[in-house]
Write a structure and sequence with these properties.
By secondary structure, this protein is an alpha/beta fold. It has helices at about 15-25, 35-45, 85-95, 130-150, 170-175, 195-205, 225-235, 245-250, 255-260, 270-275, 285-295; strands at about 5-10, 30-35, 50, 70-75, 105-110, 120, 155-160, 160-165, 180, 190, 190-195, 215, 220-225, 240-245, 265. The protein has a domain at about 5-165 and about 190-220 and about 265-280: Rossmann fold, CATH 3.40.50. The structure holds NADP nicotinamide-adenine-dinucleotide phosphate. NADP nicotinamide-adenine-dinucleotide phosphate binds near residues 55, 77 and 107.
């Protein structure tokens, strides 16, 4: 790993900082873009070099990104509206000819597949996003691939399922007593523990090749409602009430309804076969048990 060169993280939030800590521990120089002075300070304290800039501040380029020859982990989400990723456009417009990275690992989502009626989906399935959120992601994937071809930069895309981990659990939602969708309408979903996602990111840099696309999830899917029940049980909270979809449409937010309206089961065989990751938490119960133990340890 240390033989690999410098790293630049665009969108250095929760996943990015976890990834950065591992890269720094293995001796890699890591830079990141930060859009607030507070985040810049946090990242500097963690040992990263920081360039301050906001991908939403107009379409002028961000100066001084140390991209030449680097591995770029692009983890910033698209903006909240529209059907295209204007943030990615600003980033790509900031890479002067001659400063191309060696490789870009792009963190996409499984939302690009849209609703698949609960079918098993591998990477050969057509991406047919059913929400504008999914369209922006697919726009980003396509744009990055085109740019990579033009500028001779290897691009690896990770289509990541729901991420769970410390601070990434629906505990507030459960405490508020918000309902979920009852069977048989409950959507099928997949998840990945954030620590395993970081492992996959590192493996994608090492083993992923230009044009590669990977579904990223653990080895156990299930319904969204079963997920909420499992989290409730693990954290000794009441299980949420289950209601039919028709009723949910009247009381849940449009965002929640859009999540509940997409059902698919992900095939992660390519991730295992090509990236050779050994998941620490192949099943949800194991990941949740570790999170409960961690919560108890931290008081
Ligand atoms: N949550 C899930 O279940 C899930 C599933 C699949 C994929 N993903 C995607 O995986 C990626 C990483 O997730 P995460 O949990 O690490 O997300 P996160 O903590 O929200 O990190 C995203 C980072 O992007 C930065 N960013 C956003 N807009 C920016 C802008 N205009 N200019 C510069 N930086 C900007 C944010 O900056 P600030 O720190 O200033 O906000 C933040 O540091 C995201 O793209 C996420 O959408 C998430």
């Amino acid at each position: 790993m240390s033989a690999l060169g410098p790293v630049l993280i665009i969108g250095c939030g929760d996943v990015g900082l976890r990834l950065a800590r591992q890269l720094l521990a293995s001796g890699r120089p890591v830079s990141a873009l930060a859009r607030s002075a507070e985040r810049a300070q946090e990242l500097r304290e963690a040992g990263l070099q920081v360039v301050e800039g906001d991908l939403d501040a107009g379409d002028h380029p961000i100066e001084g990104l140390p991209s030449a020859g680097a591995t770029v982990y692009y983890l910033a989400p698209p903006p909240g509206g529209g059907t295209v990723d204007t943030r990615l456009r600003v980033f790509l417009g900031s890479i002067e000819p001659g400063n191309e990275p060696a490789k870009v690992i792009y963190m996409s989502t499984t939302g690009v597949y849209g609703d698949c009626g609960g079918a098993l989906i591998d990477e050969t399935a057509e991406a047919k996003p059913t929400t504008a959120r999914g369209q922006r992601r697919l726009d980003a994937e396509n744009l990055l691939r085109q740019w990579g071809n033009l500028r001779k930069v290897a691009v690896v895309v990770l289509r990541v399922a729901g991420i769970y981990g410390p601070g990434k659990l629906p505990l507030n939602r459960l405490q508020e007593g918000q309902p979920v969708i009852d069977d048989p309408e409950a959507p099928q979903t997949n998840r990945i523990h954030v620590d395993d996602l970081v492992q996959v990111c590192l493996a994608a840099e090492e083993k992923g090749e230009d044009g590669d696309l990977f579904n990223v999830c653990d080895d156990e899917g299930g319904t969204m409602s079963a997920y909420f029940d499992a989290v409730a049980d693990a954290f000794s909270l009441p299980r949420p009430a289950r209601i039919p979809m028709d009723q949910a449409r009247q009381i849940l937010s449009p965002l929640m309804i859009s999540y509940f309206s997409e059902s698919r089961r992900l095939d992660n065989r390519r991730m295992h076969e090509r990236l050779r990751v050994s998941l620490r938490y192949p099943r949800l119960a194991e990941g949740l048990a570790a999170l409960v133990a961690e919560t108890k340890e931290n008081g």
